[in-house]
Prior knowledge:
The protein is of the alpha+beta class and 192 residues long. Helices cover 43% and strands 27% of the residues. It has one domain: 3-Layer(aba) Sandwich (Aminopeptidase), CATH 3.40.630.30. A hairpin with a 2-residue loop joins strand 6 and strand 7.
Amino acid sequence: MTLRAARTSDVRAIADLHATRIDEGFLTSLGTSFLRRLYARVLHSHDAFIVVDDLDGVTTGFAAGVADLGALYRRFIVRDGLRAGFQAAPRLAKNVSRVVETLRYPATTGDLPEAEVLAVAVAAERSGHGVGQALVRGAIDEFVRHGIRTAKVVTTADNFAALAMYRACGFVIADGVEVHAGRSSEVLVWTA
Ligand SMILES: CC(C)(COP(=O)(O)OP(=O)(O)OC[C@H]1O[C@@H](n2cnc3c(N)ncnc32)[C@H](O)[C@@H]1OP(=O)(O)O)[C@@H](O)C(=O)NCCC(=O)NCCS
């Protein structure tokens, strides 16, 4: 497997992987155009990164991380909010409570680290071969490169593959949260 930093040309594949592989969280429900805009913003943020798995020129997995998720969302709203919101307007209108839950969540994590693994996804046909773990280790390397010594990740409590992957990379369960009402999640923390 070849891991490398994402490029602008990867954004479409990253958004597609998110849309097809991640059913938790409401970002998926906002559609791939919205996700493309969000990941383009992540890619061009100095305090965020995306690592991809490149299999003979095909982007088959990614891990995205950010130093401060609240700050990223605020920047996204200021710079992309109007266009992104316009594209996703019908879906946003149907999901107002989930929008509020998602935007409020970074402010509810108390003493937990600000830095966060935003998302990790591997194409179904590539799953189970250690790509997810390699991507998470690549994300940890990026955190360290950015001078970050601790980071968190949130995943639903029934996502056993993700929990096993994060644990294998040194994350430990620190807390339980309900990002979206009625669906329990685990917060895992990695410390260098
Ligand atoms: C989670 C995901 C990224 C893992 O990618 P992957 O390349 O398959 O992961 P790996 O091959 O590195 O395996 C990770 C661990 O999970 C374990 N695992 C895989 N499927 C599992 C399952 N259904 N139940 C329990 N453990 C499982 C593997 O055995 C491995 O643990 P091990 O090394 O101790 O054997 C991938 O399944 C995926 O894209 N899922 C959908 C998106 C998602 O849920 N992302 C995480 C939340 S943002």
